[in-house]
């Protein structure tokens, strides 16, 4: 929701945030009469519609469709990278949304990068839409000894680090020491 709020340009000081939200939601295939009442509640925008009377499962489907449509619209303008970090902490409904998004944008130029410290992601993905990479534990000391800092502060790994991307699995934990 924070990403949508940021993209739409809704802040506490935004004049007429409901108009911005309406404009953003109008790009979806979900009618405004359905999506607008749901998203005003999530984004804390003062609604000028009655609250949604849809069942929770119908609201969930509408939210998933709006997000899928939104990401497809962004990806149609330019390639898109969508990053979800520490997926192991995700709540079940967000996991379901993530799974729906992965399938919804599979045919578009979207790189959906999901990291997890678990051996499997909570959002079940099949091999048709995902590639899993397992990384070995990589301590800060090991990173420091095998990398260098660029002039812009980016970490540059040597070519030998390519071996870390050779194993198709889910991301394991990265050591903090």
TrEMBL record:
Keyword field: ATP-binding, Nucleotide-binding
Organism in which the protein naturally occurs: Rhizobium mongolense subsp. loessense
GO MF entries: adenylate cyclase activity; ATP binding
PANTHER family membership: GUANYLATE CYCLASE DOMAIN-CONTAINING PROTEIN, TESTICULAR SOLUBLE ADENYLYL CYCLASE
One GO location term (cellular component): cytoplasm
Protein name: Orc1-like AAA ATPase domain-containing protein
